[in-house]
Every structure is written in structure tokens, then in C-alpha cells.
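This entry is set out below.
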Amino acid sequence: MKQLPKVAERLIRYAKYDTQSAYESNTYPSTSKQLILAGDLAKELEEVGLEDVHIEEFGFVVGTLPSNIDRDVPKIGFLAHFDTTPEFTGTDVKPQIIWNYNGNDIVLNKDQNIVLTAEQSPELLNYIGDTLITTDGTTLLGADDKAGIAEIITAIEYLILHPEIPHGTIKVAFTPDEEIGSGIEKFDIEKFDVNFAYTLDGGPIGELCYETFNGVTVKTTIKGFNVHPGLAKNKMVNAIDIFTELNSMLPANERPQYTENREGYFHALTITGDVEKIESTFYIRDHDRQKLKQRQDLFQKAVAYLNEKYGDSTIEYTFTGYYYNMGDKLKDSMHLVDIMEKAAKEVGLTPYYNPIRGGTDGSWLTEQGLPTPNIFTGGHNYHGKFEFIPVESMEKAVEVIVKIIELHSCLEEE
């Protein structure tokens, strides 16, 4: 019987918890089911040997590994989130193991003819010979970001089992509601009490990140007027048509499916309603903060035009869910980036930098004064049924965490 390494066993166990967050919620966390995994993670941290393990008011799981050296060195935090995206179901996840991947297409679900192909995901061919964890084709996997949690706990457990490795005080925190951009805003940075931190949140093996999008969410309500379609001439105002018109006024070539690297976008994320009323959500993203502002201005001008055309207050909107490019603030803390690059090289990787086309908890933490770059977890195809992660990539992430901690033990406390 082949044996999975502990980091992979942890991911598979966590993936089976339904921790989907919800956009439309007035509670913290946004879904109570996230707290089930939070409670079990707290128990696991205690079993591993961390101290001061507790669940804070808004669902944050926190624990401490005390320093094992007799000098003051920086205190480091490691964070990952346990919610999964509302965009695809995370109910009844059934992870599958592909041993010694051979480069062929992977049948995820024979009954529904769902196949993960190298044509669709050419990065698969980078992992011939590796062991892959996939979905069964009906749910996401949840490696975003339960892989990060598994890697952090496994790394901390390794340090506890190997006290000869020097380290300062290490704090861990597992967070809810990262996928909807609201959870981390309730996090108490002062109480966490570290000099800096790292998130483990996404990215293929070797990817290191210190830049994210600047982002804002736009909530819109469009009011129409409904009458019987047989009597509608010069009377009906169809809110669906107005939404379509609004979306068409935003640059069509600046949508997620047509952009890459540092190119920003407008993204119509959700739409619900009927002729009488439409509620919708847009994402606006750009790596440049000034360009984000220009995109917001363009959106406002489009709304103003349509309100003049169809009547005042036909479209009402609010900008919410702001986060900012952590690269703007990390310019003053690039030694953290240098250390994670050195750590990756020392465990045999060829690290590279990519600007994240999204945000992390580190975006908000860095903006609030806690520098927090991001380390890869190893996964691919997040937020959908073709999500997969190589086990060997997870093992390397664990090694990088341990090496970062070891390298930081040589520094003086800031």
C-alpha cells in the first residue's frame, strides 16, 4: 500500500470539510460551517504541540511556537485561509489520488465524461512522475487554501520534532472569508504580535509573490418597470437590458479572459433578478492604483449616462471590498522577499516572481503595516472542478517554510 506524506493526508482530510464562504451575508464568518473546520484545526494545533491555541471572536485560529534560542530575533507569522470560493461548490468533495502521473489525460468522472487534459492544462506535463491530488469532477478541491494550512502545520510539526533547528517565536493564523475579501479586516494585528508574516496562498511550485492587484467590488441595483409584454410598448423598462448596456459600455477587451500579467480588468461577477430589478456585482482590478481609480471613474461615467437616459436612480451602486497592491508597501521590506527567494533556492528550487492577479490576506495586512508577501502552495486551476495539486510541490512548500524560519533565526529583532 502506497503511503501519502503527512502534508497530503492533511489536505485530503481538510478538503472534505465544506467551508464555502458567501458573498451575501451579514455574519462573521459569512458561513457558520467554516467554524467546524476552525475548531478541528485548533485541536490539531494543540495536538502538534503549539501553545496559546485559541479561536478568536471572528473565527481566526491562532497558535504560537515559542522560540528555542536565547537571543531576540524577529517574530514571524504564517497565514492561510480555510474558506473556499462561493463561485463553485465545495460540498461533498471527494479528492482523488493519481499516483506516478504518466502525462495522459485524467478521467475525473467517467459517468459525466469530465476529463482533465494536458491540452486544456499544459502545466500538467511538468508533473510527469509526480503524485497528483485532483477532484472527482463535480466540486472544487479546496487546495486554495487548505493546502497552505496543511503545509504550515506540517512545517511547524517538523520544527517541533527537530529542536536542533533554531527558530524564534513563530505564530500561525488560519482565517475565514478570504475568498470574499472581508475576513481579514477583523484580524487583530497588534494581538498577533509579529514583526512580519508570510501567506501561503496559491501558485505553482517556485512562485513567489510580493505584488497583488488593487481591487474594488461594485454592488449595483438596477430598477426597471414591468408590465405585460403584450402591452409593453413605450412603458416597459427592462432592468436586464440596462445591465447588458452597462456591461457593454465597459471595454470588452479588458475582461479577465482577455488579460494577463499586469493588465487590469472589469469583471461582471454575479447577476440576479428580473425585468423589475437586477442586482449585480462587478470586480474592478488593476496593479496600478491610479489606473484602478481611472477604471472606477469610467464605471461612474457609464452609470451617469444610463441614469440620464433612463431616469435618476435607475442604477444605484456602492464601491466596497477595497484592497491594495502590497508591492507598494513592501518596497520598504524587500529583505523578506530576498529571504524567501534564498530559502527556495536552498531547497533546490528555481524561484520566480509573478504579480498575483488577485489579492491575498497579505494585501490588507501589508496595507495596515504588517509586511506579508506570499509563498506558493503548489496548486493549479483554482475555483473549479479541474483543480489539482502535486504532492511533491506541497512537500517543497513545507521545506521552504522551514528554511525561511531557519534563515530568519540569524537576524536581529527589528
Observations:
- The longest helix spans residues 289-310.
- The chain has two domains: 6-212+325-408, 214-323.
- The chain has a mean pLDDT of 96.
